[in-house]
Give the backbone structure.
Amino acid sequence: MNDQEAKIEKGIEDEAAPEHHHRQQQQSPMAASAMDGVAAAALRLVLHRVQQAAVRSGRSSDRIRVVAVSKTKSVSLIREVYDSGHRCFGENYVQEIIEKAPQLPDDIEWHFIGNLQSNKVKPLLAGVPNLAVVETVDDEKIANQLNRVVANIGRNPLKVFVQVNTSGEESKSGVDPSGCVELVKHVSLACPNLEFCGLMTIGMPDYTSTPENFKVVVPHISTLENCRSEVCKALGIAEEQCELSMGMSGDFELAVEMGSTNVRIGSTIFGAREYPKKQSN
Ligand SMILES: Cc1ncc(COP(=O)(O)O)c(C=O)c1O
């Protein structure tokens, strides 16, 4: 058993969980630990690791959001993490989020982090009124469709991230870094029902993320940070107005050290994902 597992096993009574973005952790860490299940305890350890990484890079963890990626996980497990005080969850599939969201409290801040097709935008927005963010806008067509549907259903403006393919692998979604400014301009100027929040990058196709995902272009500057500089220059906005969503279970501390403000963490909180075995006939 490694250190981390040992701490989870013990309920990590020794460490105070940091509060994070939007002050989601309301309970006293000690009180919470007595009641925590494994996932809630794992989340608190993640929050602590985020805080430590923030300190290492001279930042405050208050500004770093942890999206608990609950893809394939049951409503009861999500509820356990919710009951420990967490409010921000992420899902990849439209069908899955529209089934789960109505069974869970409506003060959850849902992030959609999967590949989104135009014909799924309406069911997504209609089925999840508390959808807070779509992190995966990667072309004008999907931006236009989100913009249209937000207006049609009359909900409040939708926060979006523009997804950038920082590794250049064809198999990955995301706009090429060279097209990033153009797409952000489109979202900001031509989509009044969308609120541009920042840039997102994803891990490897099998979702085992590695430091190479952040591809450093010049020492200490990742591709995504480079895109942010260009976007901020083009739009005349401050860097604080352009978040960076990068970092998953395998690399979130490095991502935080490299400036991430939004980490998306699944298996470290909820355990490995299990997919139903394919039928052989
Ligand atoms: C876009 C995205 N971000 C983050 C995650 C979470 O990955 P991990 O379980 O490695 O934390 C996933 C998992 O499917 C994902 O699709």
